[in-house]
UniProtKB/TrEMBL annotation:
Binds 1 zinc or iron ion per subunit. Zn(2+) binds at residues 75, 77, 232, 306. One of its GO terms (biological process) is L-histidine catabolic process to glutamate and formamide. This is Imidazolonepropionase. It comes from Rhodococcus oxybenzonivorans. It is found in: Cytoplasm. Keywords: Cytoplasm, Histidine metabolism, Hydrolase, Iron, Metal-binding, Zinc. The lineage of its organism: Bacteria, Bacillati, Actinomycetota, Actinomycetes, Mycobacteriales. The gene is hutI. 4-imidazolone-5-propanoate binds at residues 84, 142, 169, 235, 311. Its cofactor is Zn(2+); Fe(3+).
Amino acid sequence: MTTDAARSTVLTNIGMLVTNDPGAGAGPLGLIRDAAVVFDGGTVAWVGPSGTAPSADAGHDLGGRAVLPGFVESHAHLVFGGERAEEFAARMAGHPYAAGGIRTTIEATRSATDEELHANSRRLLAEALRSGSTTVECKTGYGQTVGHELRCTRIAASLTGEVTLLAAHVPPPEYDGRTDDYVTMVCAEMIDACASEAKWIDVFCERGAFDRDQAHAVLTAGMARGLIPRVHGNQLGQGPGVQLAVDLGAASVDHVCYTTQSDLDALAGSSTVATLLPAADFSTRNKYPDARALIDAGVTVALGADCNPGTSYTTSLPFCIALAVRDMHMTPDEAVWAATAGGARALRRDDVGVLRPGARADALALDAPSHLHLAYRPGVPLITDVWRSGVLAYSAARPRP
Ligand SMILES: N=CN[C@@H](CCC(=O)O)C(=O)O
Ligand SMILES: [Zn+2]
């Protein structure tokens, strides 16, 4: 077992390799049977048939198992205090989900110590790694004051380079009935204070949260400070989120459960990714997005787990793949692509979500002969090994990280 990123490692006897490089193998997933991969330090050095693999300092025989690029989680809320199991139970008893539930977590987050927030977010990041996520975006959004958002942004930045300032998640209680004043404060103070720690700016554009003009003001203020927009939209009903995301050239619009034909047309003619979050729809009994209509219209689709304590307390992209196939009518290949290359597109990255020379050496192995088993065997812990930047960061054969 190799844990040293400075050395080269050859993975041999891979039954089925997903490269996501159509030039390297069959179909959009670039599938290669009986394959090998060489990692040199933190990058992929070689990909091809097992028999022709170059030698390396160390070897890892996969015994016919499948290997995929590490999952790219492009939607996660990992910095928060408390949990909302009671709200989940009430929902399962028939209470609807509403944006206001976010305030419960704002209160718990503001009350939590830095150490508690660090420990909880690191625990969830390690959980995501065990589920195969090797790149993880992380949002703030449960502070909603300058000081608390700055604290949460710094904690997120200690976990990942993909930090999203979710400056406008829901108007906090002290701004009750004064959402415009909150937006003014965000644009005048919060974004200035937090921008240097973040890459992305995000808004929840939805009934009960922020309307189109308010969301536009926050996103453009973020863009003026160098942040790239992404949007939570069209989760709970039809709304302006999709169109706003496209108008501003956002990297992604997330949820996208309720769409009109003009939303589909706008997305199809844009570079904005539709990031679908089926675990949130599962846990809120919400309508699933029409993934088939999106894909058939030519929209780029990503899958995210949306880990958060309200709507989706899971870090498991394998679970989302299974939901996407069973309930959103994506093919297993489409779902696997969306959780790897699709997530990379949503984060505007070309070095992850793909196994080709020069890419980051992020991969996972399954206790299964092909990637199809991710949807075919729902709920089964199939992931045996996860490499991040060439290092074996998780192995089911070893104690957990
Ligand atoms: N939709 C908005 N934000 C989260 C939910 C947050 C919460 O309920 O705490 C989401 O992505 O689902
Ligand atoms: Zn979210």
